[in-house]
TrEMBL record:
InterPro entries for the chain: DUF1638 (IPR012437)
Domain DUF1638: residue ranges: 30-180
Superkingdom of origin organism: Bacteria
Protein name per UniProt: DUF1638 domain-containing protein
Pfam families associated with the record: DUF1638
Organism of provenance: Desulfoscipio geothermicus DSM 3669
Length: 186
């Protein structure tokens, strides 16, 4: 996996850097909050792929984060990881099991770090909007990979904003590692 150029959503920065460690990779991260504006997301992916200027550039962005992400990637020399979202990249098949238990909204440490940019700035949600939108969910699960310490104050502020119980569950990086190897070696 050495000498690769990669384009990745900033949500997975910590996990990707942990998995790739000291390997010779050139990773470009796009702003995690772009998910709320499909035009800006497409523009950023396109510009970054052009800037990388290569063939078969691995793109670590869920294939459902933008309805045309695979087409955009293919047109500009990229290949998209085979997962719907960063959550599915981490959970794999376990996601269906967790979804069957309750209506669940998922967070990663990257989402927790960026929640204000995503929901307040990007979507423009005030506290009432947040409660209306998050009110659909029975719970919020924070996927803790153990890589980034959870900022308890930030988590409490997010709970206060969303008003939905937040549970933290440990997750390993096995599924993301497998998907990453498939993408980089494919």
């Amino acid at each position: 996996m050495s000498g690769k150029k990669i384009l990745c959503c900033g949500i997975l920065r910590h996990e990707l850097e942990h998995l790739l460690g000291e390997q010779n990779t050139d990773i470009t991260y796009i702003d995690a909050a772009l998910h709320v504006d499909l035009d800006k997301l497409a523009q950023s992916v396109t510009e970054n792929l052009r800037g990388i200027a290569g063939i078969n550039i691995p793109l670590i962005i869920g294939n459902q984060c933008h309805p045309e992400i695979e087409q955009i990637a293919a047109e500009h020399g990229g290949r998209v990881i085979q997962a719907k979202s960063c959550i599915e990249m981490l959970l794999g098949e376990k996601m269906a099991e967790l979804d069957a238990e309750a209506k669940t909204f998922y967070l990663t440490s990257g989402w927790l770090e960026n929640w204000r940019k995503i929901f307040m700035e990007g979507l423009g949600w005030d506290a009432v909007d947040a409660r209306q939108n998050f009110g659909y969910y029975d719970r919020i699960l924070l996927l803790d990979t153990g890589i980034v310490p959870i900022d308890d104050m930030n988590l409490l502020e997010f709970y206060d904003y969303a008003q939905v119980p937040v549970e933290t569950i440990p997750v390993d990086l096995d599924n993301l590692r497998k998907l990453l190897e498939q993408l980089l070696n494919g």
